[in-house]
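[recover] target loaded
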């Protein structure tokens, strides 16, 4: 946290700084260095968010990727979502030299979500169930090399068709979102490993996106793939690629839906799941794609976890994010030994 006069270059320098002090009633400021793609910057650093944050004394400063990070700042927080080993090394070196700066989030924790096997392992290990419901992971099989063994492996594992085939690696490229529905096990050998094959779970065509920002949880509904009946399964064979059916445009929050399908997961279950995942994953910023097994009251499956997702689409994100950033820095301030 910076006190008056310590600020170097920052986003919108000088604009509204006076208001910031009047508004915030303090001369404390928080400087957040960010390294984001231009797409992410556009969707996340919306003008309304920047001005709201500035009025709370939070300033966003673009990290210059053409200059050494160690020569930039000073920052209270570094917020990043860039791919590649080189960037990971830059952030790791910076974090070692600046333990006082909060890195959102540590690269090795983010890396955990770049593989669809390690991504869901913590949920599987949790085996979360209480009087409010149960959270698991669909049965899945990982295919690392030879696709010709898939039919045998599927049968041996007793996996139920249809299956969803997903690239094992999630690296922000469009390829990592190329998903297929397989109605028979033989067509799967056409796919290119490494893959994860997940049992398709009927869920009434609705998915819950559980956004996590530190301790805050926000749930939104999105349309999803429709149920697949036994009859359809008996008549259809083959492999079908499908688009990103649950993207932001597929919001179901305003739609009239069957309450047994659309009722949000119990809050207590979400609090436990979010708390456990925050701790085990070591992440502050992620969302969880969760589905309710069709016909059950509260049997849920986590099918995807995303690092630093599209918070710009999350209701009230300006307030949630600024409160989160302030709490991060204030908690750090409290922990500082009296100097
Ligand atoms: O994988 P999903 O469920 O579509 O969520 C995406 C995803 O997190 C995506 O990141 P990446 O996997 O392409 O790196 C996000 O893109 P941005 O980082 O550019 O925002 C999407 O925003 C996520 O969508 P959503 O926020 O609806 O979960
Ligand atoms: N096991 C599954 N059962 C039913 N539908 C699924 C399953 N896995 C994925 N889907 C559907 O496919 C969509 C994308 O899958 P997901 O694992 O979230 O990949 P991505 O990272 O590309 O979002 C989900 O939003 C959901 O509609
Ligand atoms: Mg998803
Ligand atoms: Mg995803």
């Amino acid at each position: 946290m910076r006190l008056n006069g310590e600020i170097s270059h920052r986003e919108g320098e000088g604009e509204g700084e006076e208001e910031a002090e009047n508004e915030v009633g303090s001369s404390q400021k928080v400087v957040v260095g960010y390294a984001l793609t231009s797409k992410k910057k556009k969707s996340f650093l919306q003008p309304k968010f920047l001005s709201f944050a500035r009025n709370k004394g939070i300033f966003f400063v673009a990290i210059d990727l053409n200059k050494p990070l160690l020569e930039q700042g000073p920052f209270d927080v570094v917020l990043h979502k860039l791919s590649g080993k080189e960037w990971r090394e830059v952030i790791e070196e910076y974090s070692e030299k600046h333990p006082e700066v909060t890195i959102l989030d540590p690269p090795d924790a983010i890396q955990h979500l770049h593989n669809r096997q390690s991504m869901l392992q913590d949920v599987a290990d949790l085996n979360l169930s209480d009087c409010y419901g149960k959270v698991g992971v669909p049965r899945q099989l990982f295919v690392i090399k030879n696709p010709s063994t898939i039919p045998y492996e599927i049968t041996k594992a007793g996996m139920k068709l249809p299956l969803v085939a997903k690239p094992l690696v999630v690296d922000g490229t469009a390829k990592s979102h190329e998903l297929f529905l397989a109605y028979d096990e033989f067509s799967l050998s056409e796919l290119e490993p490494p893959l994860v094959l997940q049992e398709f779970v009927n869920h009434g065509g609705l998915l819950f996106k559980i956004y996590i920002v530190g301790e805050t949880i926000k749930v939104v509904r999105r349309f999803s793939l429709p149920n697949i009946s036994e009859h359809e399964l008996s008549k259809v064979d083959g492999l079908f690629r499908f688009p990103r059916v649950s993207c932001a445009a597929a919001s179901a929050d305003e739609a009239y839906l069957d309450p047994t399908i659309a009722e949000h997961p119990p809050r207590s279950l979400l609090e436990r799941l979010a708390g456990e995942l925050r701790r085990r994953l070591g992440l502050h910023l992620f969302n969880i794609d969760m589905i309710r097994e069709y016909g059950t009251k509260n049997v849920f499956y986590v099918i995807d976890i995303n690092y630093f997702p599209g918070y710009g689409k999350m209701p009230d994100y300006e307030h949630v994010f600024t409160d989160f950033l302030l709490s991060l820095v204030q908690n750090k301030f409290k922990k500082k030994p009296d100097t």
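[recover] notes: Residues 304, 306 surround magnesium ion (ligand 4) (CB under 6 Å).
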